[in-house]
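The authors assume throughout that readers already know how a fold can be written as C-alpha cells. What matters is that the chain and its backbone geometry are given together, residue for residue. A single example would do more here than another paragraph of explanation. For illustration, here is how one protein appears when written out as sequence plus C-alpha cells.
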Amino acid sequence: MESQKTLSSSFASNMATVQSTPTNISFSDYLQSLSRTPHRLRKRMLATWTPDQELNQVRLRSGADMMRKLKWYDLIALGIGGMLGVGVFVTTGPVALKTSGPSVFISYIIAGISALFSSLCYTEFSVQIPVAGGAFSYLRVTFGEFLGYFAGANILMEYVLSNAAVARSFTEYLCHAVGENPSSWRIEVDRVAEGYNMLDFPAVALILLLTLCLCYSTKKSSILNLTMTVFHVIFFGFIIIVGFSKGSARNLVEPGGLAPFGVKGVLDGAAIVYFSYIGYDSVSTMAEEIQNPAKSLPVGILGSVLIVTGLYCLMALSLCLLVPFNMIDKDASFSVAFEKIGWKWASNVVGAGASLGIVASLLVAMLGQARYLCVIGRARLVPSWFAKVTPSTGTPLNATLFLGLCTASIALFTELSIILEIISISTLLVFYMVANALIYRRYVVISHNPPSQTLLFLVLLSSTAIGFSMSWKLDEQWWALPVLGGFMIAITAFFQYTVPSVRQPNEEWSVPFMPWPAVTSIFLNVFLMTTLKAVSFRRFGIWAFLISLFYVLYGVHSTYRAEEMEEGVGEIPQHRPSIQQTKLDIQVL
C-alpha cells in the first residue's frame, strides 16, 4: 500500500512537471505538424482511455482536485433547478401557440419518456466513470477521441446558446414582475437584422453575476440553488392550483380540439420541448464533487427527471386551462395568462417567480458547461489553460470565466426563437450517441464479445429507426411503419438472445433489462430528430463542419503532442529527463 502511494505521488509530481513543460511551438513547427495530419488522425481519432486513466491520470492535469461536498439532495435540487426554469417559462408558450396547441402537455410526456431512457444510460456511465466530463468522457472511453470531442463540442454549444437565450427570457418575466414593458429595458439598434437588433443588458448583468458566484464555490452555489428551488416548487404549486381551479376544460378543446395541429404537431412539439430536459446532464458533470457518487448519482439524475416531468405536464396543462391556446403569449405566457383572467397582482407574482426559476436553471447550466470545458481541456483538445482548477475554491475558474463571457456576449443580442431548434438537435444527437455507447460498452468492452456483432446491430437499429421516422414524417407508405417497427423489436430480441452480457464484479448500479432501455432511447432520439425542420439540420451541419475543422487543425495535434510528452517518446527532444521519468512511472503503475 505504501508503495502504491509512493508511485502515485511520483506520478502526480511528474505530471506536474509535464504540465509546466513549455508546449509552445513555432509556426514552422505547426506547418510541419499539419503535414503529418493523416498519420495523427489515424492514431488519435479512435484512441480510447480506460476509466481508471480517466479517473486518475487525466484528472491530475487540472492540478488541484474539485472538492467533494455534494450529497444526493443537492443533486436532485440541481437537476430540478436546472430543468424547471428553462422548460416551463421559455418553451411552453411558443410550442402551445404555434406547434402543439393544448396537447403541449402530451409533448412534454413524450419528451419526458425519452429523457428518462436517456437518463438511465447517463446514470450507468456516471456511476462507473464518475468524472466531470459527462457525455464527452463516456464517449471518449468507448468510441475514441473524435466522437467524444464531437459530443463535448455539441454539448458546449447547446449550453452556451440556451443559457444566452434563457437569460433574455429573464428580462421578459422581470419586466412583468415590476409592470414594465420589456422593450423599455432593451436598446434597439438600427441596421441590424431582426432577431439580433435588441440589446439586452439585464440578461448580460445576470450572467456575469452568476459567473462570479460560480467562481467562488460550488457548494455555496448549490445551497443558493437549493433555496431558490424550494421556493420555486412552492410557486409552481400555486400556479397549478390556480390553473386547475380557475381554468376551464373548454379551453382544452376550443378552438380546434385538443390537438389542432394533429399528431405531427404533438410530436414536433416534443422535439422542441426536449430542450427543457438538458438540466439532468448537468448533474452528471458534478460527479467529481459528490461524496458518494455510486449511490447519489442514480437518485439525483433519475429522481430529478421524474419529478420535473410531472411538474412540466401539470404546468403546461394549467396554462392551457387558463386561456385558449391561440391567446397564449409567446414571450411571458404565464404572466399574461393571469392578466387575461383579471389577476393583475398574480401576474406580477408569476413574473417574479419565473425570474427566480430562470436564475436557478441558469446557475445549474453554467455550472455544468464549465466542467465540460475543463475536462475537454484536460484531454488537450482545447488549450490546457481551460483545465485549471483553482486550489482555494476547487472550481474550474478559467473555464467558468471564459464561458460566462461567451454566454453574456450572445445574450446581448440573440433571440430565443433563432436558436431553439438547433439546441434540440444537438441535445438529441448527443443522447443518441450515449445510448449507442452504453450498448457497445456493456456487450463489447465489459462482456468481451466480438465488436462486429454489436456494431452490426447498432447500424441496423439506427437505419431502421431512421426509415421508420422518415416514413412517418413524409406520410407515405404507411405499411412500412409496422414492418420496420416489428423488425426493430425482432433484431433487438435476437441480439439479446445471441450476444451474452456479463455484469462487472462489485457493480453498484446498472441499467436493468438491457438492451431494451438503450434501444428505446436510440429510437426516440432518432424519431424526435426527424421531426425538426430542415433549417435546423443546415445550421447543425455548419457547426459540425466548424468543430471538425478545429479538431483537424488544432485538437488532434495538441493531443498527439500531449500524449507523446507523457510517454516520453515521439517528437519530444531527448534532453528532457523529467518526461523520460514520467514514462517509467506510467509503466510501473
User: Anything to note?
Assistant: The chain has 22 helices and two strands. Residues 63 and 138 are 22 Å apart (CA to CA). Confidence is low (pLDDT under 50) at residues 1-23, 569-589. The radius of gyration is 24 Å.
